[in-house]
């Protein structure tokens, strides 16, 4: 007997055809992604449907919605679906799921034909330019676009487009964790975490569980320019390297000086790398000094053994904020291929206290490339600071000529 796929009543309108775009947003454990995935699987079984699953940033199938859909198919023992390495196909009616990243992928997105339903996961990260590419691509008569997201900032383009400004024939579903409680689908361990946040961390609770956006003032970096490529005249000065751990990626960026500013170019952002693998990647890059996390002296020594120029950074009290403050005063550009760095740049935030007041301490998230950048630029910041100190201490009489005395 086939297992029944359950869909909460709050999401019933997903099966209607009188809307063009759907904004489905709210806090953690509101069942957004799981419910949309289940609904799309049901739709794909009913008739031949081409479903395109998008994210703003997706450099591999592992970063897509593929695994969630595959897990549901396996859970409900839906043998009419065939899972390949990068797609899902219904062998009875020909429905298929495809997976693409939006960022820096305009031509590939425009070439997709016959999309019936587009699902954009983590839509809070989608840029205005990506929306402008996506919406005309999903152009088949009766086609629909579903956006699922937890609001990040007040200015999130997808929320501004669909909810604040509004579009014709838009479905809006705002849900929170009370949906999971209503149907008995919230595990005790998650409920306890939610209740602890509610009692002790009110600002975190409002963002995490009620889906309230951060204010734009919480963004640590702003106004970085996204450029197509590194100008020929730019000079490579350093690499910054942040080592990864079990669940964290290794991040490495080339740091260039150009026209009075800095350019960052992502060369590594990958989980599960050994020091030998990191060294093999670095050996094939243009030569420059590498500044790495000093908390990993053994890793630095091993990479140095491959005849690479690598030195530890200098950490100390206040070094994070000092580095951030210096970078905030710089003219900065990032190459558009630096997908993970751009994602971190958009999500790197200051912490707040229980009353929502911004603290002078960054959240320990979205910071792998951000840390690598600080390591690679710390000497620039120190040199500038030392120069300012010398000017400040210069005696008033120094430099006055005999003719002026």
Molecular structure report:
Residues 391-405 have low confidence and may be disordered. With 405 residues, this protein is of the alpha/beta class. Helix 7 (188-200) packs across helix 8, helix 9 (275-283) packs across helix 10 (297-304) and helix 11 (319-328) packs across helix 13 (368-393). The strands form three sheets. An eight-stranded mixed β-sheet has the order 3-4-5-2-6-7-1-8, sandwiched between helices. It folds into two domains: 9-208, P-loop containing nucleotide triphosphate hydrolases (Rossmann fold), CATH 3.40.50; 218-391, Nucleotidyltransferase, domain 5 (2-Layer Sandwich), CATH 3.30.420. The chain is built from 13 helices and 17 strands. It has helices at 32-46, 66-75, 106-110, 128-137, 157-166, 178-182, 188-200, 202-208, 275-283, 297-304, 319-328, 339-347, 368-393; strands spanning 21-26, 50-55, 81-83, 88-90, 96-101, 117-120, 144-149, 170-175, 225-227, 235-242, 250-258, 261-270, 289-292, 310-312, 332-335, 350-352, 358-362.
Oligomeric state, counting identical vs distinct chains:
single chain
**Low-pLDDT ranges:** 391-405
Number of domains: 2
Neighbour order of strands in the largest sheet? 3-4-5-2-6-7-1-8
């Amino acid at each position: 007997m086939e297992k029944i796929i359950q869909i909460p009543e709050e999401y019933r309108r997903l099966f209607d055809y009188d809307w063009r775009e759907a904004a489905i947003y709210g806090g953690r454990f509101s069942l957004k992604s799981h419910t949309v995935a289940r609904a799309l699987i049901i739709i794909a079984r009913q008739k031949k449907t081409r479903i395109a699953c998008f994210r703003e940033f997706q450099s591999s199938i592992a970063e897509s919605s593929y695994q969630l859909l595959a897990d549901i198919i396996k859970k409900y023992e839906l043998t009419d679906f065939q899972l390949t390495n990068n797609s899902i196909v219904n062998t009875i009616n020909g429905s298929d799921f495809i997976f693409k990243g939006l960022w820096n992928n305009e031509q590939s997105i425009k070439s997709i034909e016959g999309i019936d339903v587009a699902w954009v996961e983590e839509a809070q990260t989608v840029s205005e330019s990506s929306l402008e590419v996506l919406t005309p691509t999903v152009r088949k008569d009766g086609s629909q676009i579903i956006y699922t997201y937890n609001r990040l900032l007040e200015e999130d383009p997808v929320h501004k487009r669909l909810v604040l400004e509004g579009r014709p024939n838009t479905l809006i579903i705002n849900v929170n964790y009370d949906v999971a409680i209503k149907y008995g689908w919230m595990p005790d361990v998650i409920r306890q975490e939610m209740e602890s946040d509610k009692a002790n961390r009110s600002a975190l609770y409002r963002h995490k569980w009620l889906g309230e956006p951060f204010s734009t003032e919480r963004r640590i970096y702003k106004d970085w320019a996204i450029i197509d490529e590194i100008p020929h005249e730019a000079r490579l000065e350093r690499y910054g390297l942040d080592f990864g751990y079990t669940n964290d990626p290794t991040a490495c960026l080339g740091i260039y000086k150009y026209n009075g500013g800095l350019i960052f170019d992502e060369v590594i952002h990958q989980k599960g790398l050994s020091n030998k693998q990191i060294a093999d990647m670095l050996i094939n890059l243009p030569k420059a000094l590498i500044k790495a996390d000093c908390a990993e002296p053994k890793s630095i020594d091993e990479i140095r053994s491959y005849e690479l120029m690598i030195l530890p950074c200098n950490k100390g009290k206040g070094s994070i904020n000092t580095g951030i403050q210096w970078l905030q005063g710089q003219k900065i550009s990032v190459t558009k291929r630096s997908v993970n760095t751009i994602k971190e740049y958009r999500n790197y935030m200051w912490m707040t206290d229980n009353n929502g007041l911004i603290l002078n301490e960054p959240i320990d998230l979205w910071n792998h490339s951000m840390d690598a950048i600080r390591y690679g630029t710390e000497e620039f910041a120190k040199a500038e600071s030392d120069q300012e100190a010398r000017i400040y201490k210069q005696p008033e009489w120094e430099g006055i000529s005999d003719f002026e005395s």
